[in-house]
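Slide 14.
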Amino acid sequence: MSKRTHTADSPARKKVSKTHTKNIINNQADYAARYLSAEPLDVFCWGTGSMCELGLGPLAKNKEVKRPRLNAFLPKDSAKIVSFAVGGMHTIALDADNNIWSWGCNDVGALGRDTSGAAEKLKDMDAAGNDDSDDDDGDLNELESTPNKVDMSAFPAGAKVVQLAALDNLSCALLDDGSVYAWGTFRCNEGILGFYRDEIKVQRTPWAVPRFSQYDIVQMAGGKDHILFLDQEGIVFAWGNGQQNQLGRKIMDRYRLKTLDPRPFGLRHVKYIASGENHSFALDAKGKLVSWGLNQFGQCGTSTSVEDGALVTKPTKVLLPEGAGEGTKKIRQISAGEHHSLVLLEDGTVLSCGRLDMCEAGFSKDDLPEQTYRDEHGKARSVPVLTALTKGADSSKPLPSFKYVAAGSHHSVAIAQNGIAYSWGFGETYALGLGPDDSDVAVPTRIKNTATQDHRIVFAGCGGQFSVSGGVALSDDAAEKRADEMDD
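Slide 15: predicted structure.
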């Protein structure tokens, strides 16, 4: 594929002048540091992988993994993974040599590589030990369940990938020249929506997205079937399905294919973007946080009231606790799932809002916030405003200071400053990594297992029913010190 060319509707790129003062200037290097590890990572996967999500190979026994397991197909010394992005049913990863890897469901091209030639072995029902009560129906597609490299020939020579984004059915790569490559498709309520306008329905290999900003793109934020882009000027663009107002603009049904490309919708002076499955966030240069999209459980955090099927139709100010967003409590990171949202502050505090039914929000059911919404039967349904998480599984100890948060559809993982991971939320798929108990977990609970106990976890990502983390092995002295601290 040739390098991108500029057309009448894809403006030539402009570099932001150092003397430009009218708007803020976003530096791509500042964002790249959030997504790239300084050293290669050991990659751990866990949860339910019936659609090859775990990337642990084709054997049927790998469909359920109840605690973090080292991915043997991605050895640190040879694969050298430094970043990854987790979608609903797939993962893409970046190595130190600028190669993209992928694994998981490839029904609509989200892996960016051909997996059609794989042979799937079905279980022999007549074999000894097999019976109808066993729902294990055979091995997985070997090409989807095994991490493999994406063909990088479509990318311009010498360009470096600085961020990856994975949605439910689409993947994106942001390059250091400010350009975007994508593959897969978007879905809507009626099925496949399409990939790019009415020209491409499904894109199965990396494709250069025609330039949509005059300036370099510096950050991406992927949802379920929509994605946001932020440029150097602080302008936000949205692309994909907008049926829940997650694009920040109204999409007329008869024009939804003609407008299926990244477009601005009025947000300027933005420094940071984030997205849940069907709602979105933007933080401006003055620290004002806004949200929009689906809000039936208060996941947008914009109001104390809750209404079934509610939408926030335009970017609206998020209600923050007193002092949050200022000084040492400035917003560091945002991550969100289907019906809950997490905001990490610079001081390590995690704020949460949204649904309580499957323990997504992370609050103890015995000590719910004052502004908890209850239905007509008195059942606690959601916390509609961002509220600090203060209690963990060990009520005798305060929660640690956190440095990273990741939200899946109905569960979350948070990484403490010491590199230990905690999880909470929906437990049935084992995406919490807490072992054979598949109960929902209401509050942040330490993930304890042999594979990660001597690692400093750096990144984590959560999908629909699985999780991924990346970590660096501790030195012997550091591992011994951690063990002593955990015994205290």
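Speaker note: Residues 41-116+139-152+418-436+446-488 form one domain.
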